[in-house]
Design a protein that fits this description.
heterodimer; A: seven-stranded mixed sheet; six-stranded antiparallel sheet; 46% helix; 19% strand; globular; B: 58 residues; mainly alpha
């Protein structure tokens, strides 16, 4: 009974399930945030909010403590306000939370909550609220705070303070379209006498009509079809030929021929066809834009990669996802970690490697209080930073896509399309010449119209759109399943992969529920030193040891060094502490144990070792079984302790190599590539970043950390590694879909061309058909990808 | 015959003036948001007056 009530109850404010503890009168709430908003509205007689739409609110998940006080600073105020005087000010806020009728109603009734507000107006499409207020009664910050308190926190971005604007392109297109439509209609009117065959009865009037047609066609030629003409002209100047060239040639031919006809008095010309052609081309383009907008996958919002960073929460450091960072948060960055936002340095000094941003790998020294830019990689001892400016994920994504880290290999399909477009265009031009010659003999009056149809219908836009839409959609689906790829080209390379290589620690195994034991002698303080030293490193084993020891030491570490694949060292209170592999610490004895060992040496004297038994991730064996012989090797930097366990896990044909240095791993991969294999490497991105870069596809496997090497092509969440085989097969399906799309669009072109060449297609119909074919191909690829992905992942759910 | 030409010119002038009006309305933002006004006209303004009246009475 009780559970029944629980599941039935939803929050009166936001509609989320609520437990029965929070009531206000007869209305249940899920959290205090929602209840507070209800109270504010109740007090001010604004409960109509709840009548317009059921549960219209948004949950105040993070009750924001951010004050908007900075908005009252003079410079910022000036930037935000669109109008400012002593008695009147206007501001436009971007409020992403606006989603329904109730939202509009509440946002337009803000003046009832704050007497300083004069009027507020919502633009639903852009999700903006324009607010007029009296500056002597209300401050900008109090307005923003009021909105935040209601669950409609304005998103403030000082670079361009309002909403992402509707592209001005849209308006220009509309104008071009309206002018073309206007001219088309009027040209048709003046062409009526000709349609009715009155051309001989009154030559003078016909002449006037023809000249008026020229007059009306000029704006269409000069303005409405400008996009096609300039694009073609640009590519022509670069001695290249793009897909707009045939269209542009068709338009110019039709226009020039019509003028010639009229001026010489040869005939009435084809101005009706010309203006109609442009009109329908533009309608097609407008409709195409609309379709793409509804299918668009916004990389900025949907393919976040899970970059996390340690944030101070009271006295502890807890990982937090980067896009939840706020200004003035204190964060801690460890060796090799990326700074996720523009920050100020709180420690004395530190070295940062900005190769991620600039490509220049010489580290830069930063002193206390100086600004560290997002994208810098810390080298050396961990530092504490204070966030100065929130960073958008898109900024980091764009850094990731920096040319410096692009694999030189160009996308196969991009190259194919470029080549095809070029050759295709020449073929089209040749074909239209042949057609012109043929029709000149058969029926000279038809030549111009037929050539134009051929040139228009041959446009291979559908061909050009197939690959970006298929891969773009696949990228989005992968992101949802927590595989975050750098860009669409990676999918293409993934499809070609026939050899998969794994790292061990952190990839096959993970750090949950480890068994850590220490053998040897260490005093309490020395143990704390080790705890401190390991907190500086992001290596999975360091983190496990740190977690095992726990506690916070007040000791500071000097001269911290991390040697990838070997260990870490540092000076604590004058003593040199080294932690790492046997050879690194100088241990030459023999220990029989079936676990990873991390040796400890203080002042060059080996004191003992940690033995760490890591657990294998769930469903690894099943996944490796499904991969079968595709999985060719496992490369581990550790010793052979785990060999028996790994042997049972891997397919017999896979080679298991231990004690591999980062260089060995890289070498092994390039060796595979020399034998013609396409290699995918999965690793933690720390001591195998070279291998990740060398591999055709390098995926960094991560659970919660911010270690992230720009050299990798993708980030795979640790728990999704069991679906690796599905990802691989989906990438292969994506290329199949692209090929199918190519065939489809090629068929369209072939059929339409055959009609055009044989004179069965008027330019107007061609102009309508062309965008239709593009849209149908795009819809086909998008649907095909969605259906395939759904089916595959459903299979996974049944299996596990 | 001249009258036809005059008529054509007049009709063209009227048509162009409509085009100009359309251009002006587009530039002034009439097509920016075609959704909110349709909702806004359904909100009742009376309620505000009622509430205030009630409050003063109370």
């Amino acid at each position: 009974m009780e559970t029944l009530i629980k599941t039935d109850l939803t929050c009166y404010h936001c509609g989320e399930p609520s437990d029965k503890s929070l009531w206000m009168g007869d209305k249940p709430f899920c959290c205090y945030g929602c209840k507070t908003v209800y109270e504010i509205l109740l007090e001010n007689n604004l409960c109509e909010y709840y009548d317009l739409e059921e549960n219209p609110g948004t949950q105040l998940r993070y009750v924001s403590e951010e004050t908007y006080a900075f908005l009252d600073e003079k410079d910022i105020r000036k930037k935000m306000l669109t109008f400012d005087s002593e008695t009147f000010a206007r501001v436009q806020f971007y409020v992403p939370a606006i989603h329904c009728v109730s939202c509009i109603w509440l946002m337009e009734n803000l003046q009832k909550l704050n007497s300083g507000i004069l009027r507020s107006e919502v633009n639903f499409a852009r999700k903006t609220v324009t607010i007029d207020f009296k500056p002597q009664e209300s401050t900008l910050s109090s307005v923003a705070k009021l909105m935040a308190a209601l669950g409609y926190a304005p998103r403030i971005n000082l670079d361009h303070n309002t909403a992402p604007k509707h592209s001005p392109f849209d308006q220009a297109l509309l104008l071009k379209l309206s002018i073309a439509g206007f001219c088309f209609g009027n040209v048709m009117l003046f062409s009526f006498p000709e349609y009715l065959g009155l051309d001989k009865s009154d030559g003078q009037l016909m002449q006037v009509f023809s000249w008026l047609n020229i007059l009306l066609s000029v704006p269409v030629f000069m303005y409405s079809d400008k996009d096609y003409l300039t694009s073609a002209w640009k590519s022509f100047k670069q001695r290249q030929i793009n897909i707009d060239v045939p269209i542009a040639i068709g338009l110019v031919a039709l226009f020039a021929r019509s003028i010639w006809d009229i001026v010489t008095g040869y005939g009435p010309g084809y101005m009706d066809s010309f203006t109609g052609l442009v009109f329908f081309l533009l309608i097609g383009r407008w409709f195409q834009n609309k379709t793409y907008q509804s299918l668009a996958f916004d990389r900025d919002f949907k393919s976040y990669f899970p970059l996390a960073v340690l944030r101070r929460i009271k006295k502890n450091w807890e990982p937090v996802v980067v896009y939840n960072l706020e200004k003035d948060d204190q964060i801690r960055i460890r060796n090799m970690e990326i700074v996720p936002a523009d920050c100020l340095l709180l420690d004395e000094e530190a070295l940062f490697d900005y190769s991620f941003v600039t490509g220049e790998s010489r580290p830069v020294q930063v002193r206390k209080g100086e600004l560290v830019y997002a994208g810098g990689k810390l080298i050396g001892q961990p530092v504490t930073l204070i966030v100065e400016k929130k960073t958008s994920q898109s900024h980091l994504t764009s850094l990731w896509n920096n040319d410096v880290f692009q694999k030189p290999e160009e996308s196969k399909y991009k190259r194919l399309i470029d080549q095809a477009a070029r050759r295709f265009t020449w073929v089209i031009l040749g074909l239209s010449l042949v057609t012109a010659a043929y029709w000149y003999v058969i029926d000279a009056s038809q030549v111009w119209l037929i050539i134009t149809s051929v040139l228009i219908v041959a446009c291979p836009c559908a061909l050009a759109l197939t690959a970006p839409f298929t891969y773009g959609n696949m990228l989005r689906i992968f992101g949802r399943k927590r595989l975050y790829l750098k860009n669409a080209d990676v999918i293409e390379r993934m499809a070609a992969v026939n050899a998969v290589v794994f790292d061990k620690t952190g990839t096959i195994t993970h750090g949950k529920e480890p068994k850590v034991n220490y053998t040897g002698e260490l005093s309490e303080t020395e143990l704390r030193w080790i705890g401190e030293l390991t907190s500086y490193s992001t290596h999975p084993l360091s983190k496990l040891i740190h977690k095992h020891i726990g506690g916070i030491s007040i000791a500071t570490v000097d001269n911290f060094k991390e040697i990838p694949g070997k260990g870490i060292e540092g000076k604590i209170e004058g003593d040199l502490v080294k932690i790492g592999s046997a050879s690194f610490t100088g241990f030459y004895g023999q220990v029989e144990d079936s676990s990873s060992r991390v040796f400890v040496a203080i002042n060059h004297e080996v004191r003992g070792y940690f033995s760490i038994q890591t657990t294998v991730r769930n469903y690894m064996k099943e996944m490796l079984g499904r991969l079968g012989t595709q999985c060719v090797a496992m490369l581990s930097g550790d010793n052979k302790a785990d060999e028996v366990q790994m042997n049972t896990l891997f397919y017999p044909s896979a080679r298991l190599l231990f004690n591999q240095s980062p260089h060995d791993k890289l070498h092994y991969i390039s060796n595979l590539q020399h034998h013609g294999e396409k290699v995918m490497m999965l690793g933690d991105g720390l001591n195998d970043s070279g291998a990740l870069k060398q591999a055709d596809v390098g995926l960094a496997v991560t659970d919660d950390t911010g270690v992230f090497t720009p050299a990798c092509d993708g980030i795979l969440h640790g728990e999704s590694i069991s679906q690796l085989d599905t990802f691989l097969s989906l990438a292969k399906s994506a290329t199949t879909i692209v090929k199918a799309g190519f065939v489809l669009s090629f068929m369209y072109n072939a059929i339409a061309l055959s009609f055009a060449v044989s004179g069965h297609l008027t330019p107007l119909v061609a102009a309508i058909l062309m965008p239709l074919s593009s849209i149908s191909v795009v819809v086909f690829t998008t649907l095909a990808v969605n259906v395939t992905a759904n089916r595959r992942f459903k299979g996974i759910n049944h299996r596990t | 015959m001249k009258i036809i030409i005059l008529l054509i010119l007049i009709s063209l002038a009227i048509a162009i003036s409509f085009l100009v009006i359309f251009y002006w309305s587009m530039k002034s933002g009439q097509y920016d948001d075609t959704y909110t006004p349709s909702i806004r006209m359904l909100f009742e303004d009376k309620k505000k007056g009622d509430n205030q009246a009630n409050q003063t009475k109370n």
